[in-house]
């Protein structure tokens, strides 16, 4: 079984401009696993977070399951969340909550991507 087949939870999103968001996701650190297009439109994509987990997405379509964009949120764990946070901002994200040390352990911060989705980056790993 390959590593992708072991992933049992996938975040699902839709984007107004999936191509632009793929550039942003790549800058943040996601790795493309598969992207399928019809007539030049991203209808399904599977991108992986290096620490584990995945994101499935596509462009908003009239026949799609997700009809709106900008309301999703995700928490991504990384050994160096400050670096990931900085990459996200450099790629066009807006700071929602700056990186801070958390009372419950670890560090974390939140940005909004160019389409308004919230992404929290942190080092806190529940045990």
Automatic annotation (TrEMBL):
- Biased composition of type Polar residues is found at 117-127
Start and end residues of each stretch annotated as Disordered:
106-127
Stored InterPro entries: Glyas_Bleomycin-R_OHBP_Dase, Glyoxalase_6, VOC_core
- Positions of the VOC domain: 6-124
Gene3D superfamilies (UniProt xref): 3.30.720.110, 3.30.720.120
Give the matching Pfam families.
Glyoxalase_6
Q: Which PROSITE patterns match?
A: VOC
Q: What is this protein called?
A: VOC domain-containing protein
Q: Which domain of life is it from?
A: Bacteria
Q: Which PANTHER family match?
A: BNAUNNG04460D PROTEIN-RELATED (PTHR34109), VOC DOMAIN-CONTAINING PROTEIN (PTHR34109:SF1)
Originating species? Nocardioides luteus
């Amino acid at each position: 079984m390959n590593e992708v087949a072991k992933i049992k939870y996938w975040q699902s999103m839709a984007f107004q401009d999936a191509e632009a968001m793929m550039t942003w996701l790549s800058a943040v650190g996601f790795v493309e696993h598969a992207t399928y297009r019809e007539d030049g439109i991203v209808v399904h994509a599977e991108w992986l977070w290096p620490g584990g987990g995945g994101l499935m997405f596509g462009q908003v379509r009239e026949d799609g399951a997700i009809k709106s964009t900008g309301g999703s949120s995700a928490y991504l764990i990384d050994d160096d969340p400050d670096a990931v946070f900085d990459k996200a901002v450099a790629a066009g994200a807006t700071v929602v909550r700056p990186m801070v040390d958390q009372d419950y352990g670890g560090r974390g911060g939140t940005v909004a991507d160019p389409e308004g989705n919230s992404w929290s980056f942190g080092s806190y790993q529940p045990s």
